[in-house]
Design goal:
With about 240 residues, this protein is mainly α. It has helices spanning about 20-50, 55-100, 105-115, 120-130, 135-145, 155-180, 185-210, 215-244. The chain starts with about 20 loop residues before the first helix and ends with a helix.
């Protein structure tokens, strides 16, 4: 399968452990939102710093990037989750209508899906008939089987927007902080060191979420963030020289 990552048996939790919970689903956008804010504003600050402007210009660019990015993330996350919720509401209503007006068709879909999973025709039919006694359970299962939508995988739009907004803001503030406290070379070096340290911590957090080695997640994150910062700094330097 394209894009599949092999997972060592030793990296898996105990078989009796539960699968990912809603708490972990909330934690993920916070971690990735922080990462987006950190990488994007680090690249922006380094790009502007490469051009050699007055310190105030770097701060202005960093603050503008923080505010614009945070609102973009928040609005984007709200629209994304809200749209998923609206689609789910429509599909749920339509599924209930199908169960009321075309029950035989829906029964055949359920039976076929479980025959495809390895059940015998009789066992699949018995299972489908048992499910169809409760319209709510049947609708939820059919919705997942036919459309791939599951209410458990869609969170609150407001919560998603707020968490993304706050996470992006915190991440984007990291490369900007040294420029608020000092200027010149100390601010430049401080921004890089602080940002790469934060990237390593975030990379480790992402690795814990995805059950990968912590050193691997930290190294990967620092390398990718460092490349982004280096490229934008180089571009800013070239533009600064050309403009000068």
């Amino acid at each position: 399968m394209v894009g599949r990552v092999d997972v060592s048996e030793r990296s898996l939790p105990d078989a009796s452990a539960p699968h990912e919970t809603r708490a972990n689903s909330v934690l993920r956008p916070i971690v990735f939102g922080s990462n987006d804010g950190l990488v994007s504003n680090l690249a922006l600050v380094m790009g502007v710093a490469g051009a050699g402007p007055e310190p105030g210009v770097i701060v202005l660019a960093g603050v503008a990037g923080l505010i614009a990015g945070a609102f973009s993330m928040g609005v984007g996350e709200y629209i994304s989750v809200r749209s998923q919720r609206e689609l789910l509401d429509f599909q749920q209503a339509f599924q209930h209508k199908q169960l009321r007006e075309a029950p035989a068709q829906e029964r055949r879909i359920l039976v076929r899906s479980y025959v495809d999973r390895g059940l015998s025709e009789d066992a699949a039919t018995e299972f489908a008939d048992a499910l169809l006694k409760d319209e709510g359970h049947a609708a939820a299962l059919l919705l997942f089987e036919e459309v791939g939508l599951d209410d458990r995988s869609i969170g609150s739009p407001s919560q998603a927007a707020l968490s993304s907004f706050v996470a992006f803001t915190l991440g984007a503030f990291v490369p900007l902080l040294p420029y608020l406290l000092t200027r010149g070379q100390p601010a430049f070096v401080g921004s890089i060191v602080l940002s790469l340290t934060a990237l390593a911590i975030l990379g480790a957090g992402i690795a814990l979420l995805t059950r990968r080695p912590v050193w691997y997640g930290a190294t990967r994150q620092v390398a990718l963030g460092g490349v982004a910062a280096a490229v934008t700094f180089a571009v800013g330097s070239v533009i600064g020289v050309s403009a000068g």
